């Protein structure tokens, strides 16, 4: 067991990279679509496209999205390293969920905030950037942390396109050593700290925000 | 006296409900108009339509005898609006609430905007709270901050939409005092309020609305002692009973 452990560390790093790069990219895509969704009417062309996109992501299994990225991207002339194919597939998936998270948070901001900004002469873009989105991001945090832990675990499915991430590496080692159960346990143990660490960071961020401007002052 | 605002035949519909019906109103510089009336009478809709927050279905709004589009009205900060629910930005400190629009809209640099903010916070007497977040302030202090924020943009006319209706009785006075101070500096104001004592003291003209129409427009003296309309008398009997 001890001798295979170091061989799982580089793949663990691949898992972390592919998950967090995808999360990061998907966050901005989600924020963009979520903002457009919540401020413009249903029939705005961007909204129609983004609703259709979210619908596809939410209604198909991630494994199909990964295969689709792997098989279709070369067909349209995009030949990428398998790592970046993984990033594209996970970003495609996560952005769908994060669009929904952003939309829900932005919609939940009181309309009085828009009215006050408008009467102060602020443009809609300025209002979104400085007033609405900073407040919405705080509300998005718990759901985004949830999505992060979901995505880290879902990245194991990238093994189907032979990306040497943690799960794929463990499968390869199982094939060599026949230590199936031990390697299963070991990879589970390696996923654990990443997911827990992510939730922990999110809870710290959440607490920081609460201290600064919560509606209810707990100290009183 | 120069005319600063005239409204001609303003109409606002909510679906088929005629919330504001053919209202015309004119306002001179330094004049203070109080709008009162029962709930649902359209007074909030009227003031929000003036501010550009409700779409008027017909009617014109002239500023200094010039017809202005909604966009120009916002861009030139013609109106400062104070809301019942304060609508401060909860993620910004008191001073940031005031400096942000100055920096982003008026393109004033940071140190200059802080000077302006401190000046208006002094006027509303909450300068000592400037680095706190709105949630740490009392309702009265929050409303005074909201007034300061509007004032900092240097509007021509201040609009108040029931500024004290969400406040505890104790805090109402501190907000009314700030508004009285503002009146004494010569600010032109339109105020929607239920505070009849305050209206009597501060207003040059009182408008009574019911069912989306102006029922009576009168001087405060005549309005309270000798109203023209029967409907005004019933309303006054209701609100002045206690």
Structural description of this entry:
The complex is a heterodimer of chains A (220) and B (242). With 220 residues, chain A is mainly alpha-helical. Chain A is 80% helix and 0% strand. Chain A is globular and about 70 Å long. Chain B contains nine helices and ten strands. With 242 residues, chain B is an alpha/beta fold. In chain B, α3 crosses α4 (110-123), α4 (110-123) packs across α5 and α5 (139-152) runs parallel beside α6 (169-184). The interface between A and B is medium-sized, with 23 and 30 residues.
Could you name the ranges of chain B where pLDDT drops below 50 across 5 or more consecutive residues? none
Give helix % range of chain B.
25-40%
Largest sheet of chain A: none
Number of strands of chain B: 10
Name the quaternary structure: heterodimer
Q: Percent range for helical residues of chain A?
A: over 70%
Task: Tell me the layout of helices and strands.
The complex is a heterodimer of chains A (220) and B (242).
Chain A: H1 5-39, H2 45-59, H3 62-75, H4 82-108, H5 111-119, H6 124-154, H7 166-177, H8 180-213
Chain B: E1 3-14, E2 17-28, E3 32-36, H1 43-51, E4 58-63, E5 66-67, H2 70-75, E6 79-82, H3 94-104, H4 110-123, H5 139-152, E7 157-161, H6 169-184, E8 188-192, H7 196-202, E9 205-210, E10 213-218, H8 220-225, H9 230-240
Parallel strand pairs in B: 3-8, 3-9, 6-7, 7-8
Antiparallel strand pairs in B: 1-2, 1-4, 4-5, 9-10
Helix pairs in contact in B: 3-4, 3-5, 4-5, 5-6
In short:
The complex is a heterodimer of chains A (220) and B (242). Chain A has 220 residues and is mainly α.
